[in-house]
Specification:
- The structure is a homohexamer of 324-residue chains.
- The first copy, chain A, is built from 11 helices and 8 strands.
- Chain A has helices at residues 6-10, 62-68, 83-86, 102-118, 133-144, 172-178, 199-208, 215-221, 223-234, 266-279, 300-323; strands at residues 42-47, 89-94, 122-127, 147-152, 182-192, 211-214, 238-244, 281-288.
- In chain A, helix 8 crosses helix 9 (223-234).
């Protein structure tokens, strides 16, 4: 594995500037060779795919933007742990998606995530539209069995179809539950608001035993209570964490396909993701629906998404430390 | 009335994509024929006018941007009611404003809103600069008599003049009170902050018995208490709701003519508008000062404004349901 | 048909402001009722579809942006004719495309364009990605038989596939020729440059007798000579004109999915399109690959596309005038 | 007069960085004291006013943006003369315009420009919408008598009214001719294109003896021939030069209220303005309709406008040098 | 001293429009003449310098953007005092920084701030990257002796070096403490979060007795308690207030070099700065790291920074009033 | 060397989508191992450095933006050659520059370019500000002796200093000539315009025998004649090609630090660069001063720069083909 940072290190500098060097997540080593996954704790995978959206496309540029928003490794100032020091993290590159071919792209994502899972590493997938949660979770469930799901989102994504399309960015969670890859009794949604889905979908959710915390629940109970209840519900067993950046208010994440005012703050979301990742046995995660809209070189949505990934890593590191 | 959605429905799809089809509010039917107002509950009216601003113009593009930010109808996830199912809502188009002619434009707005009011429907006006509140309210008061006013704004807009201009976006509320169209004892302002207006205007407000809740009151009392006190003050009788998007912090509404840091969050504003519309007898509303600044196709300010209108509709629907 | 302009006219104003009133092409009357196509010369059709791109999406927002870039009718200052006065032009709305469903969307486009053609009007389609040329031309050929094609583009769009996808924005012209809907002997490409397609596609083009004028031909021969030769080649018989805005240099059309430096100027393109439309028997046209990237309210790419449509209309009007 | 550059000079640096120091045109000394106009050759005046537009506003921010686009003084690389070394140039600040008060604002502009003219200096006015040409030229004609006019623009601006408004950004030239302040026999328009004005306006122009060079004339004759013919027509006597940046193609000047594709290049315009200013007796000039749309800190439209002013200054310097 | 507002006042208008007139902070009088500092309470100084950043540059445009975000003077609606009426405030222009010369630029800043301090006025410096805190504070300490420091920031800026550079935007606080210009026992940091600095820097901070309040402390204790504790710690004696706008969440301040999600809200920061300035003896302040990213003319980051300066002024005015 | 494209190829696709996969120039293989330079014809090197600018910074983001603007390999449609098929091209990554340390950064660039040169490959450097031409050329001259220089630029960059800084983005060519690394008799500048440099620099240039073609020469002679004369002057011997994107008009390259209206078109520049590279013995090249200003994901300046590099490669391939 070629280490893109060696030149800076050779000069006595521990890090590279964010804007220089090979574009990988957090400046981590890059490989696409499954053999190099041995011993890796977490592998970042890009899923540059947005062919299944029903509104604004552009999330295919998300993985690149999230990587470009990386800051150097370091200890999390609240958690007191440097995930990159505790965990072996690599950037496993992008899945070989095919433009305008949803089936081939989903297969490519599932195989790439699957390679990570097979190697015993935790995949963290950078989306991409939310339809990728289907191959992401399927690959995890193939190894771990039905997983619990902590799902941060404005939208429940439990439609049977969107505009008559069954595999859509609005249907992955329905499909995963029905296919037995997500255990509905261990599936919690956080942040729902707005005007979708409707009675049919909520009736199905209730029937399956899925738990929803709306934004008004966060407002009324506080994020800490919502996370505590969520963790208690999901409890033991493998868990997937899926974060749609539109769970944030558009002030914090304007660059997304279907933004909905009235959402979470980044203070709330970042803490919640870390708390979940520390409390539960995370076997995979994704952060989706980042539509880059940078002016100049800054992109606050991609930045928020990058930090969500960092909180996932930090939570995992905290849990491992505790476990020891 | 031509239904622009019939083609999608003919294909078995209940909605059209947001980005396709005729550009109307929420995809609602469009007409400019007063005869078709019969039986309508709420009519959306555009007021693409910004000739009376004292700072950054551009709100003339606001109505179009707000319509473009619409999402499809559906039940409000907290309120549990789909306003479009409960109310008959149409898009009555734009008032025939005349560029660079404030008097003719105000007259056009007043006549258009007046046609809605005369037909027994509730007008919801998309601004435009805040000067349009004058014709908006005048048209309502012509039918309902002096109205109560719930006014969300950074600025009191009760100047006698701005730069010696008497009909300005900074003076509508003074003029409406002095003309007897707003009952000052039933007039509440929510969200004031910053550096304007000054002692003269506040002295007049006190003299007239107008109530002001500043942002620091919202901070100290909470938005619920502020709304409760406001509703108690305004109480029974016809009410107009006027929302200047600059009441939001610029993080939530950067696209506006005179943004002022330190404002409300969208969580606060959206709840408050719905609560007001549910608690009081709303006979008209406007949402103003949206200056589109979209990069690509997203415009978070227009989006927030669109959702404010939705909350007005939802509150009205809730009130009617309760009334039955 | 409701005339959205009657209010302004009732005030003695012949036009509405560009930013106000119903959003239709050039402020023309809007209908989606095929019965109202009787007597119409040209019908504008939107095709808000971009699911078949291989690079940057966003052209689904193109039709709306092109309409928003309209200026009022008036006589073309060089040509001396007001197309809107000479021709009866309507806006026939958007085809009822379905997100993430290319087959259904193409069918919807073909049916909508077909309704226009059937009524004896000339369709001018606002894209959308270039894959829509396939249903556009197919609908025209269904009535007129194999058509000639004048195709302004950076890319030949004659691939058999792009990333193994056969119906793509890079393949419509191959498919139309092979299906017998475009007569390759009457097919001229203008503006090719860059690095695609390759030997295989050019070999096929040569075999079929397609004529290509590269940007370097425009540079060396001048646009007048290129158009003269093109018109001579295409000659009599029905002709479709397909304009991909990326034929313009990115300076003139930055908002497109696969921009390529070194392109035509707007002076060249606008003249050429008008000259073609005046010289030949145009039975249909499209302008595609507009990806709106407006900052504030201006969008130079949509503006250029709107004016390309105007030149089509002007050319048709000139031809009819000459014919009388 | 305080010299804002003295600190840099005190450090041995001849210039200040563009981004630092007091914001004046070209870093020139600033004063608003008419007494300090003595001995001044050219005074820059800002007219931050856009209340008379019929489409997109924002030109009120033009003067500030044009100043921010300044580069340091230096010899023009083609002309070989440093206008700032040959001429005494000052920044006379902005006219005290009043928001939403066109009459007061025009009066303020006329008085400010008048102060410059009275002092014997040449005013160069930074707009602002094109309606300011009326007070600009009126102030010049008050001293010099009816002036010749070289008018670079997409639009003739010779309407009797726009949307029934007589003093509009579309009418200044009509009003100036009718008021006797512009000599129609010495009035040349360069760059007309698009769809406005119509037969009525052109009939009046012909009647008055105004000469129009369209963009297609520039294309066919070349900019040199057009300027030569223009100079011959305008000939001796005082001349005002009025440049609407929308004469440039939107590729070169996207930030303007009514952009029109198919325009001049900056190479053409910059040369033409300098040639006119060298050939004729310029007594005043303005550059108008700059609507800043900077992303980050660059604004190509303001930049082009700034360089147009530089060419005016360079032409004047060349003429004076020749005269000696 | 030339008063740039006299023209408006001569017309009977108390203020100028924000977008017109000389660009100074709050429209205050401008001078660079130290002699005119006599009697001045507060002098605004620009430090357009960003040569010592480790990530995104652009803060050199900050001072100009902050001035452009000014609104007119007026009483603070919560505090009830108009700082501009109580204090004599001037804009002392920009320090004569030299591009690409950090040493010369820092010296220029120190001398300029020093001139203000020497004259007995309080300097408020507009950055510029955070390295300017070093000359800012040094100039204050030269007169007042070691100062207390209230430092709002995401990052502690107490590195010994950043990428081996000792004078960096990440090191000023270390250098000031070590040089004896900041009293570490009276130095409080508010708002730290993210992933920098690390153990070495925090160990040094602890050793020196510096107090840190992290964002999680603000979340858990509330901003009021944090400010109360901070004020108690800093207590009597001269104090410098240094505000890095990245202490705000990127939603509120996207335009900065190293944004970090999860930050303060503007409601929190504005109150806190005013409270600090009222409670303590402020002898100088700076607001730094504003990288303008305006689209059109609005720039929410510069706007927030401008209001931070207003809160500093308001706090000082409140304190003086109380003192009387 | 890991081949990031193998996954796509394994699926039967020859290329990857532009937006997916490892971010390298043209999707070429990436390495930073000098041992892998054996057999390489051209190595792309990034120089993300902008600490020596005198105006707008941001070019440190240039290399990443240029890579992101890459399109897949393919035959140049005019030249008929696929450079990537004829030449072995790799992406050698970024030089390990150090923020805020010009000396260390220049050394890092020189060493990285030197490694390429030593291995017998041609370096093509992506800037970065134009100061990097100094280490770029120095590394080439170290092997090849004094080189000829074809320099496309608005500015001559032959200052002895800029703001008293000797190593600046305005001085590299002076320094290289004086140090004997550029042969002034074989040094040609193309595209000069605007207001810098002045008499002193031109006197020195004349003394040294440097040849300048201004933009007005291109206008008057045509780009073909200018290139022909340039090639004749530079003639045989090793040549470096240095392209500052600001040689293009800001319409074509708005994202640059010191844009100057009135520049070359992309049609002119792209042809000229290829012609030079075909005619002369290019031993190195750089493309500099790209300041990314993408809105969404498109960046026309980076796109133009990427295609300039392609023309360099195409010219080299043409020359080699001819040589065989």
């Amino acid at each position: 594995m070629i280490d893109p940072l060696e030149r800076w290190r050779a000069r006595g500098l521990p890090d590279k500037p964010d804007y220089a060097g090979l574009l990988t997540f957090g400046g981590m080593p890059y490989t696409q060779d499954p053999a190099e996954l041995a011993g890796v704790d977490v592998a970042i995978v890009g899923a540059p795919f947005d062919d299944l959206v029903s509104d604004r496309p552009g999330a295919r540029f998300g993985p690149r933007a999230i990587r470009a928003a990386s800051c150097p490794p370091g200890a999390h100032l609240e958690a007191g742990v440097d995930a990159f020091a505790e965990l072996r993290v690599i950037d496993f590159g992008d899945a070989p998606v095919v433009p305008a071919d949803p089936a081939a792209s989903h297969l490519a994502i599932e195989e790439t995530v699957g390679a990570v899972v097979t190697a015993g590493a935790i995949p963290v997938v950078l989306g991409g539209d939310h339809s990728i949660a289907e191959p992401d979770v399927r690959a995890c469930a193939a190894r771990h069995g039905p997983v619990g799901l902590v799902h941060f989102d404005t939208h429940a994504d439990t439609g049977t179809e969107v505009f008559a399309i069954e595999r859509s960015h609005g249907t992955p969670m329905y499909r995963l539950v029905e296919a037995g890859q997500v255990d509905p009794g261990r599936y919690v949604q956080i942040g729902l608001r707005g005007y979708w889905p409707g009675p049919k979908e909520f009736a199905w959710q209730e029937e399956r035993g899925i738990t929803s915390f709306f934004v008004h629940d966060v407002r009324d109970l506080g994020i800490r209570e919502v996370v505590a209840r969520s963790a208690a519900l999901v409890a033991d067993g493998p868990v997937f964490v899926s974060v749609d950046v539109d769970v944030l208010d558009p002030a914090f994440a304007p660059g997304t396909g279907t933004p909905e005012p009235g959402g979470l703050t980044s203070v709330e979301l970042l803490w919640a993701v870390r708390a979940v990742a520390e409390a539960l046995d995370v076997v995979g995660a994704d952060v989706v629906e980042v539509v880059p809209t940078a002016v100049g070189s800054a992109d606050v949505t991609a930045l928020a998404a990058e930090r969500v990934v960092r909180e996932v890593l930090t939570g995992i590191a905290l849990r491992r430390r505790t476990a020891m």
